[in-house]
Amino acid sequence: MKYAIQTARTAIKNSKDLEKNENTIRGYLKDSLFVNNKDLHLVLFDLLKRQYEVVNEKMYKSEAIDTAAHSKVGKRMFLAAESLDSIDARPNSKGVSTPSYRKRHSQYLTPYRANMLKGAIYFMSHQQWKDAWEQLDVYLSAPGNPLFTGVAQDTTHTNFAAFLAVMTAYKLNDKEKAERYFEQAVNYKPRREFTLRKISELEMSQGDTVRYVDIITRGFRYFPQSEYFFPRLIDYYIGKGELKPALAFTDEAMQKDSLNPLFLYAKHNILMYDKSYDAALKYGKKVLLQNDSLSAPNYNIGYIYYLRAQEALADKDKSVRQRMKEAQKQYKKSLPYMERYRALEPEDIQRWRPILYEIYLNLNMGDKFREINSLRK
Questions:
Q1: Which of these, 290, 306, 291, lies nearest to 351 by C-alpha position?
Q2: Where are the alpha helices (DSSP H) in 175-275?
Q3: Half-sphere exposure at residue 305, Cβ-oriented, CA atoms within 13 angstroms
Q4: Helix, strand, coil: what percent of the chain each, to 5?
Q5: What's the pLDDT at 97?
Q6: Are residues 94 and 100 in contact, defined by beta-carbon separation less than 8 angstroms?
Q7: N or C terminus: fewer CB in 10 A for the chain?
Q8: Rounded to an integer, what distance in angstroms lies between the CA atom of residue 126 and that of residue 123?
Q9: DSSP assignment, residue 347?
């Protein structure tokens, strides 16, 4: 071991065989006998430091460099310093911690921290997501690392870097990595909506429904008019058969924009599921005033009037004539909506045919009745 350290020091002095000696030292550190050897960790850091400086000197001379390799050396240098510090800072027998290299190393590394972010962007541009993540993880973890205690860190780009970290984690399909810097990423306002969308997709793909709902709820609160969060939130609760929270979110949305067609349609749809037909009719008509080409509200309104006709025919408290008169009134109201639905969804014959058949029959619409009666059931 001592010979390896001496050889490494010579390599550092002559700037030769630096990577070879790095590998030798790492080999020793894999051995449980040497894993906590401070001298090995120190020489490893110095080997990486010299490798990094050699490339910096080339850059200063405007010589070509391997950007990827340089960035990876920088990452390894930061990690080596952190490992050394964790050993160096261990309390002595009296419980006192007096790290010998912390101040020197943290002051040396701090100016280069920004290069980790630059390296990440480079790797992202080449779709090397794992390398990008590792660079960002080093960059973002530095302010909270004991190594940098007392050394001011530039946090100007922290939220942006966190956003990039979440995006790389998304590409890696790694939920744990995405969650690590999620809260900071959400603070990056220019891409907040995109961040919430991607993390919700990742949570859903990983099967974490609770977290998925939490994210889309948060997205809705930030962006109530987004066509991404609100519909998914409503679809989730309707799918669960939980109409009360679905209606509550819809009402909350409508407080912000009572004329939003997305919100109006959602409320109409929820009320249909709840069989609150009078209210559903009201909101369905509001939806169609804005867009009469939506097939579902046309069908729903036609269906509601059709149900009312059925109720009128079944009303035993009235005479047959009164029942028929009221039923025909409701059939007439149903007719334009159901015909509109047929025009919009001609292939959905199983839904509109039975109702139009009965409407045409009861309204004595001979030609239309014969036409629809000829359709294949």
A1: 306
A2: 175-180, 182-186, 192-205, 209-222, 229-239, 243-256, 261-273
A3: 24
A4: 75, 0, 25
A5: 78
A6: no
A7: C
A8: 5
A9: T
Contact 243, 270 (CB under 8 A): yes
What is the 8-class DSSP label of residue 95?
Answer: S
234 contact partners, CB below 8 Å, separation of at least 6: 246, 249, 250, 266, 269, 270
- List the chain residues with pLDDT less than 50: none
Burial 205-228 (b: 16+ CB within 10 A, else e): eeeeeebbbebbbbbbeebbebeb
What is the rounded CA–CA span in Å between residue 331 and residue 58? 85
CB pairs under 8 A, 24+ apart, for 210-213?
Answer: 212/236
CA 359 from centroid of its chain's CA atoms: 48
At 269 the pLDDT is: 95
Number of residues written out for the chain? 377
pLDDT in tens, 43-82: 999 999 999 999 888 888 888 888 999 999 999 999 999 9
Q: Could you tell me the two tokens for 344?
A: 């919009």
Supply 265's token pair: 């349609």
State the DSSP string of 133-154: HHHHHHHHHGGGSGGGTT----
List Cα–Cα distances, 361 to 10, 220, 318, 352, in angstroms.
Answer: 101, 47, 22, 14
Residues 341/345/348/352 CA torsion (nearest 10 deg): 20
Radius of gyration of the chain (CA): 34
pTM for the structure as a whole: 0.86
User: Counting Cβ atoms within 10 Å, is residue 370 exposed (0-12), middle (13-18) or buried (19+)?
Assistant: exposed
Reported as a single tens digit per residue, the pLDDT across 325-358 is 999 999 999 999 999 999 999 999 999 999 999 9
